[in-house]
Amino acid sequence: VEQLRNGHYLRKEFDDSLSSQAFDHYLEALDNQRMYFLQSDIDALEKYRYTLDDAIRREDVDPAYAIFNIFQQRMGERLNFLIGEIDNHLLTYDFTRDETIELDRKDAAWPRDQRDQDDLWRKRLKSAALAMRLNDKPMTEIRELLSKRYRNRLKQMDQTKSEDVFQTYVNAFASAFDPHTQYFSPRTSQNFNINMSLSL
Questions:
Q1: CA quadruple 121, 45, 107, 23: dihedral positive or negative?
Q2: Orientation of helix 139-157 relative to helix 62-88, angle to 10°
C-alpha cells in the first residue's frame, strides 16, 4: 500500500473510488466470464465495495479471502456438476436440438440462480463435446477426455495457495492505478526471474 501510495507516479488516494475499482477488478480477475458467482453472491459481496481501502490500510486482508472462498466454493460446485454431467448425461446429448450459447460473457448478467448456472454450464460442456465431435472423435473418447480435463481442474483448484490469492487481490488494487503495475508473489517473482535470465 505504501509503495503504491508514495512510489507510483499517478499518486492516487486509497479512497472509496479506488476501493470500488479494486472490487470490480478483483471480481473480474476471479470470474471474468461471469460463470461462477451467482447474482446473489454479488449482491452479498457488495458490502465490500467501499471498504476494501480501509481494510487494506489496516493490513486486513480478510475480505480478499472471504470473496475468494465463495469463488472457490462455486468453482468446486461447477466442476463437480460437469463431472456428473459427463458421467450421467453426456452420451445422451442431442446435437440436433436448436440451442445457442454466449461465448464471451464478460458483459453478461451473473447467473440468477443455480438452475440458470446449470443450464449455462451444460451448454458449455455440450459446445466442448460438439467441437470434438466435429473433429471425428467418438463420444466414448470425448467422454474420457472431458472427464480427465475437469477432474484435473478440480485437483488444480485444491493446489491454490494463500499467496496466489493475495497476489490476485493486491493486483486488483495495482490495476486500479494502471494496467501495467503488478505485484508478484515470491514464487511468481522467482519464476519470472528464472524465465528472464533463462537459468536456474
A1: negative
A2: 160
Distance CA 25, CA 19 (A): 10
pLDDT tens-digit series, residues 53-107: 899 889 899 999 999 999 999 999 999 999 999 999 999 999 999 999 999 999 9
- Distance (Å, rounded) from C-alpha 106 to C-alpha 93? 27
**Dist. CA 121–CA 155, nearest whole Å:** 19
d(CA 27, CA 75) in angstroms, rounded, equals 13
Q: DSSP class of residue 61?
A: -
Cell of 171: 493486483
CA atoms within 13 A on the CB side of 95: 13
- Which residue pairs from 125-133 have beta carbons closer than 8 angstroms and sit at least 24 positions apart in sequence? 125/82, 125/85, 125/86, 125/90, 126/93, 126/95, 126/99, 126/101, 127/101, 127/103, 129/90, 129/93, 130/95, 133/95
Nine cell digits for residue 127: 459446445
**8 Å CB contact between 23 and 48:** yes
